[in-house]
Amino acid sequence: MKKYRPLAEDIIAHVGGKENITGLTHCITRLRFELKDQSKADDEYLKDRDGVVTIVKNPSQYMVVIGEHVGSVYEEVVDILGGGINDKENNEKVPLSKQILPFIMGTLAPIIFLLSASGIIKGILSILVMAGALNAESGIYTLGYAIGDGIFYFLPVLLGINVAKYIKMDILMGALIGAILCYPTINGVDLNFMGKVVNLTYTNSMLPVLVTVLFAGFVEKYVKKIIPEMIASFIVPMIVLIISVPAGFLILGQAANFVGDLVANGMNFVYGLSPILGATILGGLWQVLVMFGIHMAVVSVPIMKLAQGVPSEMMGALFGPSFAVMGITLGVYLKTKNQKMKEITMPAFISTIFGITEPSMYGLIIPRPTLFKLTIIAAAVSGLVGGIFRNTTYAMSGLGIFAAIGMISPEGGGLIGIAAQMIIPIIVGAILSFISYSDKNDPVVLKQKEKKETTEVSPVENLSDVEIKITSPVKGKVEDIKNSTDEVFSSEVLGKGVVIYPTEGKVFAPTDGVIKNIFDTKHAISFLSNDGAEILMHIGIDTVKLNGEGFKAYVKNGDAVKKGDLLIDFDIDLIKEKGFSPESLIVITNHDSYDEFNIVENKNVDINDEIISVKRGE
Fold first, then answer.
1. Is 182 a catalytic residue?
2. pTM for this entry
């Protein structure tokens, strides 16, 4: 069990459970769920949950913003779901308009990092050649260029895999179709088809393989229905290739490129009417588009053109907004006297250097309307500067400061404009936020202060000299939680407590209190005692994978219980048969609120035997 397992379990439980999830992808900072019913998700709980920055919704996706650890959390979520997402047929008709954005994100987003990494390599090679440190005719340069350009040349192969995976088709078939479209002898040469000569090139392309694999998926589903299962394993792929590849190469690919060129030309026409105005508007609105998760739909065509080696002024205009966010964050950091705010703003500031703006946007800016408005202004200034200098992106090379590498022209120009588009938004944003921000008017700081004042006069806090005793909810042998086989619990990152090796499959209330949350899988309960102790009871290791098998709950969320009330039955033998450990963890998650923390260990305990005592200082 990994560090982010509990967080992943909690997220699944509060987006409506496994059965409510129909799809899942992730980008740089957020999990992107496709849910059957978004109303089943607990927005407020997830927003307040440690490890979650915030949630964002649009009609097609439910996004849980995690931050830089999103990849690790995603792996845990997928592991818990057991690959079950997107496996069930959904009989509900989904409007085409709601399918486009998830399709773009599901096929393009997984390779954005690879495109950026390759762009950085090509940019470094260009810099070395310009500086005279590397000969463009050398073998080192040739090999390095192949490393940097390989993904662009064979882009249809990777996209073919992603599309096939998205539509639940054999990913090797998707890769093969992409490879065929890249085959050297049919690209860039005159081919005679029944008297008509065509000359097409699909290397470095995006749209042709997307539509071809989609068409192949449709053909495959139909062919599988009519081909006997005995010979389907090789006949079906043969028929799919014979039908889909010629159609894709001769018809669908050309049509897709025509549509892509039409959209790109339209965008360039509007942008060309006033590059300065266009860049200013686009820069100012960029963080709004990111906030709603629709930014990829806007830049998918420019990214496609970049992959084909076509420079983009539009992408150049989008170089600056992250630096505007950086400036806003810096100004607040310099102005605030609140330690909690400094703890929020400094890591967020560092993230913006590398183009990761979500920690700043969701943790700092969006909850404060004034800062959000100032961010739009500073981002618009960044676009204005980019438009004035006609900054252009020549290759995908990453986010933040790394994007600058891809903006250096092959002739080596544009450095002044790039520097200006970085520095000016930082200065403008920092000045605006420094002048306008005040801890006295900050809603989050005021909320913390109000919470503190409320807590100080609460009955629980007044019991500063009262010892709270927590009894064993499970019968068995108790040991220090550091002895648990689960590294997350044993490291005490979730709190201090004990591990109990149960001899009886029953869980009872350890004290009087309220059930805050009982997981759908019944393997864990979050409990708040009347004395203020926050208690997590986790039954077994990795037992979430049992999906509730062997567990029976007698309480529900919000129930008030008395010490000794039966909460859950669990089947110890079944847990062992399934290969899991039945060891049960009792954790005080708010242990930091207590000055004294004592446990009983290396002892066999019965229900109502004391196992933990905590006490607040005088």
1. no
2. 0.51
